[in-house]
Amino acid sequence: MESITLKYSKNSVLARRTIEYILSLGVFESDKLTYEKIGNLKAEQDRLVAEGKMQKPEMIVGFTPEEIKMFDNGIPMETVFKHLTEH
User: Fold this and answer.
1) What's the sign of the alpha-carbon dihedral 60, 65, 67, 71?
2) Of 17, 25, 50, 63, which sees the most CB atoms within 10 A?
3) Any residues with CB less than 8 A from the CB of 83 and at least 6 apart, and which?
4) How far is CA 68 from the centre of its chain?
5) Angular region, 59: left φ>0, alpha ψ -120 to 50, beta rest
6) In contact, 72 and 59? CB cutoff 8 Å
7) pLDDT at 59 (0 to 100)
8) Which pLDDT belongs to residue 60?
9) How many CB atoms within 10 Å of residue 34?
10) CB-CB neighbours of 71 under 10 Å
11) Taking each helix axis from N to C terminus, what angle separates 65-72 and 35-50, rounded to the nearest 10 degrees?
12) Domain boundaries, the chain
């Protein structure tokens, strides 16, 4: 499988809607960010910090059980962060 990376401004409604439309066609797949994947990324980050290859980020955000379920059900990360900023 080939992969592409798209970079766009999160403030661009046109770019976001275009990407959502393209993904809705079913031709491309979008990686879903699950709680398990976040845990794996955190473990990798901890390893890099221990090896001195990076500094530990100052901001740490915890997730509620409700937010964990949102991730596990494949809800887009943007939706979860929108939920976080509303509470």
Assistant:
1) positive
2) 63
3) 67, 70
4) 12
5) beta
6) no
7) 62
8) 57
9) 16
10) 20
11) 110
12) 33-86
pLDDT tens over the chain, length 87 residues? 677 777 777 788 888 888 788 777 777 776 777 778 888 888 998 999 899 998 887 665 677 787 777 777 777 777 767 777 776
CB distance 61 to 84 below 8 Å = yes
Amino acid (1-letter code) at residue 43? A
Angle at 63 between CA 60 and CA 64, to 5 degrees: 145
- Residue 1's pLDDT is 62
Predicted local confidence at residue 50, as pLDDT: 92
* Count of alpha carbons within 13 angstroms of residue 59, beta-carbon side: 1
Enclosing H/E stretch for 66: helix 65-72
Task: Locate 65 and state its tokens.
Answer: 């059980």
How far is the C-alpha of 28 from the C-alpha of 24, rounded, in Å?
8
